[in-house]
From TrEMBL:
<feature type="domain" description="Aminotransferase class V">
    <location>
        <begin position="20"/>
        <end position="402"/>
    </location>
</feature>
<dbReference type="InterPro" id="IPR015422">
    <property type="entry name" value="PyrdxlP-dep_Trfase_small"/>
</dbReference>
<dbReference type="GO" id="GO:0030170">
    <property type="term" value="F:pyridoxal phosphate binding"/>
</dbReference>
<protein>
    <recommendedName>
        <fullName>Cysteine desulfurase</fullName>
        <ecNumber>2.8.1.7</ecNumber>
    </recommendedName>
</protein>
<dbReference type="GO" id="GO:0006534">
    <property type="term" value="P:cysteine metabolic process"/>
</dbReference>
<dbReference type="InterPro" id="IPR015421">
    <property type="entry name" value="PyrdxlP-dep_Trfase_major"/>
</dbReference>
<dbReference type="InterPro" id="IPR020578">
    <property type="entry name" value="Aminotrans_V_PyrdxlP_BS"/>
</dbReference>
<keyword id="KW-0663">Pyridoxal phosphate</keyword>
<dbReference type="InterPro" id="IPR010970">
    <property type="entry name" value="Cys_dSase_SufS"/>
</dbReference>
<dbReference type="InterPro" id="IPR015424">
    <property type="entry name" value="PyrdxlP-dep_Trfase"/>
</dbReference>
<dbReference type="InterPro" id="IPR000192">
    <property type="entry name" value="Aminotrans_V_dom"/>
</dbReference>
<dbReference type="Pfam" id="PF00266">
    <property type="entry name" value="Aminotran_5"/>
</dbReference>
<dbReference type="GO" id="GO:0031071">
    <property type="term" value="F:cysteine desulfurase activity"/>
</dbReference>
<keyword id="KW-0808">Transferase</keyword>
<comment type="similarity">
    <text>Belongs to the class-V pyridoxal-phosphate-dependent aminotransferase family. Csd subfamily.</text>
</comment>
<comment type="function">
    <text>Catalyzes the removal of elemental sulfur and selenium atoms from L-cysteine, L-cystine, L-selenocysteine, and L-selenocystine to produce L-alanine.</text>
</comment>
């Protein structure tokens, strides 16, 4: 696979073995094009954006805003729909804190559409990453709203029949993941959006595991807000994105306040800029934004349909191979069902941390633990799991090495059927 040459870290050896990196669901690796883009910014244009009239300031601002255009186009958005954040967790917190501020009367009459109170309901799912659960828990506590959730089935996939009962006329917010970070299951977004629209709810999508791996158009999906992170899609850490319909963002009170997001300040009052700048207080992560745009160009050159098709093949191979190993339970969609390039497993009689250590001795990097999804694991009757997550630079050989090593875990500990 020629593109592997673009990723210097993949040439490493770990514990005397070639690195097999199957932890991109947590953090992806960076191609040289992205690394060069960030370095070139620092050596050729580094300056504060939106704050100066000198040449470097203008060049930095142009790069910063051009990146917004590139990222917006990538996800089917308009430029003023895109807000830069530190990560997806901050993006989701931005929405919940803004709603909380509206609930306290901030933002004036226009913001009251976002206000929650006792009797209102916030609906999430039992699959959620903690970043799309805890902020809503906190919002419910602050406002008196009730938090409800769509349960999962025994295999961890969503119980859509129950969704129709959970989402009601009282639902003010419906927040759910596009692709489960644990299971690789792909949510029927159209179905849940339909239910949410019938209820009159604001719809929030956790797109961290979808935007890097498949074609995504937020306007076509008709979600109101969505969040994703650069470090899961070839970009550096420290940069995330909030998508919000600009017609909604313009009425939302800000989350963070300070410099760069104001038009007028007196000693007692402040007036805020229009979005997205209203939500970008303080010095911005300019180099990371520039690098994210380069990552988007890299993925765009590959074609997201091609990315999705390849990862579906990896997921299929993972699922089939796991199903053939005695004493290992495949979590999530069954073999033959649609899944992303992810497979989480429960090895009978062996703690996931021990599984991970055995794999690591052979240079295979996977994720172990609850993957910031404790309720989901609890619903499946386990505390943690071992997750292999592939990406564009993974090969079928990587999958086979993982499967071969996984098959040795239970015998290593003397567990035989």
């Amino acid at each position: 696979m020629k593109l592997r040459q673009d990723f210097p870290i993949l040439s490493l050896e770990v514990n005397g073995h070639p690195l097999t990196y199957l932890d991109s669901g947590a953090t992806s690796q960076n191609p040289v094009q992205v690394l060069d883009a960030e370095r070139n910014f620092y050596t050729g244009a580094n300056s504060a954006v939106h704050r100066g009239a000198h040449t470097l300031a203008v060049e930095s601002t142009d790069l910063f805003e051009e990146a917004r255009r590139v990222v917006a186009e990538f996800v089917g958005a308009r430029e003023n729909d895109i807000v830069w954040t530190a990560n997806a967790t901050e993006a989701l917190n931005l929405v919940t804190y803004s709603f909380a501020n509206a609930s306290e009367g901030l933002g004036g009459e226009a913001a009251q559409k976002f206000a929650l109170q006792e009797g209102d309901e916030i609906v999430v799912t039992e699959q959620e990453h903690h970043a799309n659960l805890i902020p809503w828990q906190q919002l419910a506590k602050k406002t008196g709203a009730t938090l409800r959730w769509i349960p999962v089935l025994e295999d961890g996939t969503l119980n859509y029949e129950e969704a129709e009962k959970v989402i009601t006329a009282r639902t003010k917010v419906l927040a759910f993941t596009h692709v489960s970070n644990v299971l690789g299951s792909i949510t029927d977004v159209d179905y849940l959006v339909k239910l949410g629209r019938q209820a009159g709810a604001f719809i929030v999508l956790d797109a961290c595991q979808s935007v890097p791996h498949m074609p995504v158009n937020f306007r076509e999906l008709d979600v109101d807000f969505a969040a994703f992170s650069g470090h899961k899609m070839l970009a550096p850490t420290g940069i995330g994105v909030l998508y919000g319909k600009s017609e909604l963002l313009k009425d939302m009170p800000p989350f963070l306040t300070g410099g760069s997001m104001i038009t007028k300040v007196t000693m007692t009052e402040a007036e805020f800029m229009a979005p997205p700048t209203r939500f970008e207080a303080g010095t911005q992560k300019v180099s990371q934004v520039v690098a994210l745009a380069e990552a988007v160009r890299y993925l765009g050159h590959l074609g997201m349909e091609n990315v999705h098709a390849w990862e579906a093949e990896l997921g299929k191979r993972l699922a089939q191979g796991v199903s053939e190993i005695s004493g290992v339970r495949l979590l999530g969609p069954a073999v033959g069902m649609e899944r992303a390039g992810v497979a989480a497993v429960h090895v009978d009689g062996v703690h996931p941390h021990d599984v991970g250590q055995i794999l690591d001795t052979e240079g295979i990097a996977v994720r172990v633990g609850h993957h910031c999804a404790q309720p989901l694991h609890r619903a499946m009757g386990i505390n943690a799991s071992t997750r292999a997550s592939g990406y564009i630079y993974n090969t079928t050989d990587d999958v086979d090495r993982f499967l071969q090593s996984l098959a040795t875990v239970r015998p290593y500990f003397g567990i035989n059927d």
